[in-house]
Amino acid sequence: YPSEFLMQKITEDNQIPVHLHVSVSLQYVAGLKGNALVEFFHGNIAEVENEELRHLMWSSVLFYKTPNVEVMACVLLSTKAIYFLLDDSFIHADEHQSDFWNKENSDCENSSFHLSCCFVLKLNDLQSVNVGLFDQYFRITGHSADHIVTCLTRDSYNTHTFIQQLMAVLSLLARTPSPEPVDKDFYSEFGSKNTGKMENYELIHSSRVKFIYPNEEEMGDLAFLVAEKMDGLTNLQSLNILLYVLVFQVNHVEGSAQNTSSLQPKTLILTSSDLFLFDEDYISYPLPEFAKEPPKRDKYQLVDGRRIRDLDRVLMGYQTYPQALTFVFDDVQNQDLMQNLTLDHFGE
User: Is the pTM of this model over 0.85?
Assistant: First the structure.
């Protein structure tokens, strides 16, 4: 251990996405290759001597306790745990969550010593993994609110690869078998109220960790929500969601030293007639078992919606992935103006 192939794969995966900025400490990690990377893992991160590093991935992450703060992390999967090596800006950005992060090392701040925070989720504590629509993200759930993390990969390939690696590592875990099911009597079998709602597809791994995938009803719920936002102008039967993708909306910050741009996470939904941008809650749904009340905000909140017929042109950037797209719409104040003129002019 480790094999040449694994070393090469981990080295290839150790690249920060170009559009995201990270702290100096994480840039150092991203500069490590091959043996140096494995030695760094064993010397600074691994909790037991005999665990093996199996997979590395760079991803934005969200924590259940801090649902509004998306932070860049280097995600390391070993045979014992999942490690999230976090950007230190996260700890400073969220001062009111001081009980969540122990800040004992504040004396290091003025030195040239760069500190990163590492969040550890042991595989033995893992209960379920919820995969988001079109594999754009996934949520890992442990036994408490502190142990719920969403990885916003924004990439179905990265999601799929991580899930495959996680399943392989979980297969190595020796867990006590589930107790034998108790025979149900007549009343408990038929007395439970059927909600009528189809449950999501569940795959229960041999390690007893649930892998939960979205079903067709989730797309139906989304189509209904989109139709609602369109003020009922569209027949729900003819409404097709053509694309669901996690994106960043670029907001140019003028007046700053280098005319910088900030990236706002958004969900883009394209139908046959409209283009929508939503703020989506990626961490709170479906509700964890210990949740006492529903989340403070809805899963989807509409930010902007435009008709495709008002689309004037699409400008494409020349850079490689991730691609920048600019949608230019005709600036018509009253959206129904054209429609009404046509009706008045051509018919009763």
Answer: no
